[in-house]
Amino acid sequence: MTRNPPGELPPERARLASALRELRTGTGLSLAALATKTTFSKSSWERYLNGRTLPPRQAVQELCRLGGVPEARCLALWELAESEWSGRTAAAPPADPTAVEVRPAATGKGRLMAVLASVCALAAGGLSVALVFLAGQATDSRPAPPPSAAPTPRCRGLSCEGMSPMAMKCGTTPLTLASHRTSTGAHLELRYSDTCEAGWARMWSTRVGDRLELTRTSGNRPHSARITDGIAAQSYIFTPMTEAHPGTTVRACFRPMTGGDRECFEARV
Predict the structure, then answer these.
(1) Buried-state track 95-125, b at ≥16 Cβ within 10 A, e below 16
(2) Where does the HTH cro/C1-type domain lie (predicted)?
(3) 171: which of 77, 120, 165, 200 fits an S-S bond (Cβ 3.0–4.6 Å)?
(4) d(C-alpha 219, C-alpha 73), whole Å
């Protein structure tokens, strides 16, 4: 099994931890409150949310239910992280989070994993994540459980200004307005929720110290997100939202930790 440098999480476990943190934020529960509502302790949740320990499948299920997110979506990320943890599949972060990829499992003998990736957000996007089909599951004739209803957004328009897209439930089915690859290799996207009438930006494949700012070209106070540690650098990180009605132009500007030139791109809602 491939080992990551000390302090660096494997990519799939980092994505799972990021999604679980966003879910917990959306519930509004502290770690202590989360422990009282689940079968897992406060210290266990701290390890799961930081990515230091791969959570049990049951822990992911319980947090999904509390967050009002379809269980199958959460478990798809857990399946990828568990496969990476056990060495059944090669670990490699996606260059494009909407990519569709088919690759053999790491054993290379008679097993084929088809991964249909539609990741979020967190995105942040929302929590639309991969659906994983293993060869052994293809013959499972059990009916799939009915999908859970999408969470109701908690803000709209001006009331979303400066708020988290995850906490406000605006990242469930976002639109990608534009994307950009920086000279340092970071991936950036401008995202938009028509139900919340608000936009935000997200970044991944970043470095500690990188910063992303979001503004409207019509003028408003910038909203920013900064990579503060190695776990954040391996995750999808989002700016707070800004009000954005049809016709509004939003702009994202990336400031690398190396102090290089600022890179900006924009899109019209």
Answers:
(1) eebeeeeeeebbeeeeeebebebebbbbbbb
(2) 19-74
(3) 165
(4) 37
Name the residue among 152, 149, 155, 194 with its Cα closest to residue 176. Answer: 194
Whole-angstrom Cα distance, residue 136 to residue 258?
47
For 23-46, how does the pLDDT look when each residue is reduced to its tens digit (9 = 90+)?
888 888 888 988 998 989 999 999
- Where does the pLDDT of residue 87 fall: very low under 50, low under 70, confident under 90, or very high at 90 and above? low
Neighbours of 258 (CB within 10 A): 11
Alpha-carbon span 56 to 83, nearest angstrom: 13
The pTM score is: 0.54
11-136, CATH topology level:
434 Repressor (Amino-terminal Domain) (1.10.260)
Distance CA(36)–CA(189), nearest Å, equals 37
Closest-CA residue to 74 (of 57, 96, 97, 92):
57
Strands 211-216 and 249-255, bridge-based pairing: antiparallel
CATH code: domain 157-268 is 2.60.40
Sequence ranges of the domains in the chain: 11-136, 157-268
* Residue 5 CB partners (closer than 8 Å, separation 6+): none
The two structure tokens encoding residue 110: 């008679």
CA atoms of 227 and 12, how far apart (whole Å): 18
DSSP calls for 63-124: HHHHHT--HHHHHHHHHHHHHHHHTSS-----SSTT-EEEEE-TT-SS-EEEEE----BBTT
Distance, in Å, from the CA atom of 165 to the CA atom of 103, rounded to the nearest integer, reads 33
Cβ atoms of 266 and 217 closer than 8 Å = yes
263 Cα distance to chain centroid: 23
